[in-house]
Amino acid sequence: MMHASKYQTVWAAIALILLATVQSVSAFYIPGFTAVSYKFGQQVQLDVNKIFSKNAQLPYAYSELDFVCQPKGPVKRTWLNLGEILRGDRFVSSDFQLQMKQDIGCQQLCTKALSGAQASNAKQLIEEEYSVEWIVDNLPGATAKTEISEGGRKMYVAGFPLGRVKDGKTYIHNHFTLVFLYEKNEKKPDEQYIVGFEVYPESYDGTDCPVDVDHPMQEIGESDVIVRYTYAVTWQETEEIKWTHRWDMYMTTSDPQIHWFAIINSFIILIFITSMVAVIIMRTLNRDISMYNEEDIEGAEEDSTGWKLVHGDVFRAPKHANLLAPVIGSGIQCLVMMTMSLALSSFGVLNPSYRGGTMSNALFFYAFGGLFSGYASTRLYIMLQGSSWRRNALVTATLLPAAMFSLMFILNCFVWAKHSSSAIPFGTFFALFAIYLFIALPLVFIGSSVASRQKPIEHPVRIHQIPRQIPEQIWYLSPNVSILTGGMMPFAVVFVELFFIFKGIWSNQYTYFIVGFLAIVFLILVATAAEISIVVVYLQLQAEDYRWYWRAFLVSAASGIYIFIYSVFYYFSRLEVTGFVPALVYFVYSLLMCGIYSLCVGSIGFFATFYFLRKIYSAIKVD
């Protein structure tokens, strides 16, 4: 036993050191957190990244497109974190010659002789409304627009169109006017900060740069064509935009009043459910417990009805108890990931300047959550008379990752075939597997080992040897009806906010960083999930049905079904996705997100109900 304990200690030390190292690097060396100032004439690097479209959820690396300019010199690729790789980013240096505060009237970038196949590929991408993302000083090149509802204030939409369709013809953008906004460095007057990056693309057919708005445009079709790429650069000083607020213009696309409406709507639902719980606890339960304790137990058995009669069976292990504990443990692990990610976002650590940071940190938070997952799962497993905590720990550690890896690998095969940059490279797959194998898996076993040494949870009442017969249930208390009906409440809490969440995810923009509203809705969701599970289980016990374990979990988890149905509605009503693979990407990711959400809120509902039942049954006197 001492040898095993030393072995587990070594694993714990290695896992925690790795986790602490990675998290320290990601927390304190965040691109965009440190301002970089440039002197007059200093070289400014422009990196090309990818093209993306909300109508085709498959990004492509810009540097791999065969109809655009390729770097003439050595290609410099930027190191990417896991989040950037998973979202399809691919940073490559370009041949744009940019010097701080030096305007360029017109400069040729390259001339491309496109074959019919290359031109046809460009035409298809333009018709699918693909946009281009370039990066300068960690800022994405943006299309500047004026928001009427914001009093004429300028706002940015990340990226700019690859081309456009006009009068049934397709034109490619081959001239780019790059406008850079900068503010002076107060501490170093001879240096400046870049606070804005605007791109104004144009299409022209000629040997010189476009000189007016009436120039002929460069049409592209399915035949051979020569495309000349040019650019111009303008630097503008601004006092309105500060470096610390340079991302604000990317995030002014939603009306705060709508989010306040969502919070008020969620709060009203919470008050309604809280009132029901208050009535149950303050009136019904207090009266029942007082009456029950004033009588002897035999008289109480004859006169009592409802939840009191099933005290000898309510903590009886349910069917498939060996699966329940790993499911709850997986939910706790996802809840740790979600809570910590939301907390860091609320404090501004995870923000748009930390590209890919939310996903990268979420992966490590999930691995770290294995410690809590193993502990909770094993404590529940032992309470339910489980015989092998090691087997339970293994199932807990592999249940969700196995399902996710399988789905992602199958999906990746289709994405690979499309040569999309969102295809996960084999090296990244190995990195993800290493995180699981060397951090998540050991932490689950460490948590399980600690839980196995704890004193088992004792039930407040004794379990009878012979199960009590369950009377026939009213139709609305049947499992399917009560679970689906109860699941509507948590869904109603997040319904209004779902639109903005889906828009932020599937529009490939930087639009959903209003995490303050999301944090409030999340807290209301936690309370709603806990209370609706308590209400539904209490009504079930009143009908003398003591099989509550799975129902306490499924009532709240069922709201994930409604969210998936909403994702189907959003797909057909808001998106114009074309093709089988983009649709497959959308629905697989939606299914994974809904599954993780269901595990989280289901676990909240389960533990709230478990605590509630222990409290009320410990208040009655039973011999």
TrEMBL record:
A GO CC term attached to the entry: Golgi apparatus
Keyword tRNA processing included in the entry's annotation: no
Annotated keywords: Golgi apparatus, Membrane, Signal, Transmembrane, Transmembrane helix
Any single GO BP term: protein localization to membrane
Organism superkingdom: Eukaryota
Annotated transmembrane regions: 258-281, 323-343, 363-382, 394-417, 423-446, 483-506, 512-541, 548-572, 584-613
Signal peptide per UniProt: 1-27
Subcellular location as annotated: Golgi apparatus; Membrane
Claim: Nucleotidyltransferase is one of the keywords in the record: no
InterPro entries: EMP70
Membrane topology: Multi-pass membrane protein
Family affiliation: Belongs to the nonaspanin (TM9SF) (TC 9.A.2) family.
Protein name (database record): Transmembrane 9 superfamily member
